[in-house]
Amino acid sequence: MEHILQYFFAYKEAIFIIALSIFLGIEVISNVPAVLHTPLMSGANAISGVIIVGGIILVGHADLSRISVDLILGILALIFGTLNVVGGFAVTDRMLEMFKKKKTQKAS
Amino acid sequence: MNQILGIFDGVSVTIGDSLLELSYLISALLFVYGLKKLSHPASARNGNIWAAAGMLLAMVTTALLHKNDAGNPIPLANLIVIILAISVGSAAGWIIARRVKMTAMPQLVSFYNATGGLASALVGLLEFPKAMAGNFGSLLVTVLGLIIGAVAFSGSMIAYGKLDGKVGDIRAGYMKYVNMFLIVVTLAFGAWVTFNGGQPAEQMWAIWLLFGLAILYGVLFVMPIGGADMPVVISLLNALTGIAAAMAGFIYHNQAMILGGILVGAAGMILTMLMCKSMNRSLLNVIIGAFGGGGEAADRDMGIMKEITVSDAAVLLNYSQKIVIIPGYGLAVAQAQHIAHELDTLLESRGVEVRYAIHPVAGRMPGHMNVLLAEADVPYEKLVEMDHINPDMPNVDVAIVIGANDVVNPAAYDDPSSPIYGMPIIDAHHAKNIIVMKRGAGKGYAGIENFLFFNDKTRMFYGNAKDSLQKLASEIKNM
């Protein structure tokens, strides 16, 4: 019990952020129309690629003097993270562009 | 940048450090703002761009301003490697995103989700040996990030394979027990790795084994889940990737990662719940219960299906006043959304009112059908959600069911033994006439008999959806 309380204290800011972001996430997403489910999901998916920041830190401070398993895995993490981020945002934009195109047609 | 601002808690803080944290705050706010705008049709595209801007900001400031524990910035050589890796990832992501067909969107989202999950798992794997022995808090988040990321990775890859038709289902009853056993073993082993108190760097075998177990669990977890449940699984895996990224955020004490990850996790969970509700099933039921088959309907005397000819169908449609098209995945597979739109404009020009009834789980991911019809330029206001169309169904002259099956199966109302009993459906059976376009007389994706097809008001129109619609359109044109 003491251990748990100790860790709660050590990580209190992060735990606050987690608790509040859960509510924020629910609040932000609630009542989203069905038409946006797919773009919302792929957009959110791209945001979860924020792990790329971890990849940058890993590779950034990696030892480049020799090729190690760690270095290769770090670079792979970075490549896959970027794939997630760039691909996710690009495909979301492509989908939303289709929705928009239709709107302008209707106006004309 | 290296000018020291002051000393807090015994650590000196430079301008660069402060700017870095400030940029993370701005990134986190941009994620929230972008996601908020993404959930409204008019502002969605801007929202996506704002979120992307937040990501770019976090990437650039991390590369330029991040320092390791020894206080050293990222060296130029490493910076070049980073830029190269990012270029490779960006080019690949961009090309795939531009080329993918809209019907393949569920596969693509699964694939991207897999890459994000793998990145999280790898970060966990590489950070593990750097953790201090006995620092249970940081070991716990590292191990959790690794497990969740690995499950999201392998699960999404299997989901991708299934959606793409490359991987089949395993529907054996024992899978339920295998999976329960495996999840318990994985979590127990994870707990041991976290709390045994040894030097993490000396336990690399354990972390690799844990990685392998989590990968295996991800595979076996998605294997038994049937196609009809795919929207739930994709949303769930999406949520997992977000949570894995948040765990990695803990490792780096990075608030932008924590907030972004949890935000995605919460959003993914809401979509998951929404999808479960649309199928009237609990999440647990989707995860452990294999879906499909069964139901007394299989043994019941169903009557006979009655076919309709092209010309009869054309006459029926041409002299109707209200038509509702109910599209399903079959329409997407046949790439028939464009010709469906052609047919509906043709009918509208003859004074027929045409609308589309969209079931929440039509297609293979949440909202997939809306995207497909938007691609075919079907106006937004013609798409009607299930709850709004059902009360009006008795006034509809013809309901055209194109490549949909379970979402119009009345067994959901009256056959308690059916696996889809209780699932909300589009009430096609209340329409005055029903035309069902289908490739053949077989069962749907979930393998359940459909009473609707044997209804006296129903006429079957066999063939590939695209060809059938094409024939129908040219027949009506000649009238």
Short description:
The complex is a heterodimer of chains A (108) and B (479). In chain A, 80% of the residues lie in helices and 0% in strands.
SSE layout and pairing:
The complex is a heterodimer of chains A (108) and B (479).
Chain A: H1 2-10, H2 12-29, H3 37-47, H4 52-60, H5 69-107
Helix pairs in contact in A: 3-5, 4-5
Chain B: E1 4-8, E2 11-14, H1 15-38, H2 44-65, H3 76-99, H4 105-127, H5 136-163, H6 175-195, H7 204-222, H8 230-251, H9 255-278, H10 283-288, H11 310-318, E3 322-327, H12 329-333, H13 337-349, E4 353-358, H14 368-375, E5 383-385, H15 386-389, E6 398-402, H16 411-414, E7 433-438, E8 458-462, H17 465-477
Parallel strand pairs in B: 3-4, 3-6, 4-5, 6-7, 7-8
Antiparallel strand pairs in B: 1-2
Helix pairs in contact in B: 1-2, 1-9, 4-5, 4-8, 5-6, 5-7, 5-8, 6-7, 8-9, 11-17, 13-17
How far is it from the N-terminal to the C-terminal residue of chain B, by CA?
A: 77 Å
What would the average pLDDT of chain B be, to the nearest integer?
Answer: 85
> What structural class do you assign from the helix and strand content of chain A?
mainly alpha
Hey, roughly how much beta strand do the residues of chain B contain? 5-15%
Low-confidence stretches of chain A: none
How many DSSP E strands of chain B?
8
Shape of chain A: flat
Count of runs of 4 or more consecutive helical residues of chain A: 5
Element string of chain B (H = helix, E = strand): EEHHHHHHHHHHHEHHEHEHEHEEH
Radius of gyration of chain B from CA coordinates: 26 Å
Supply the helix-strand structural class of chain B: alpha/beta
Could you give the count of β-strands of chain A?
0
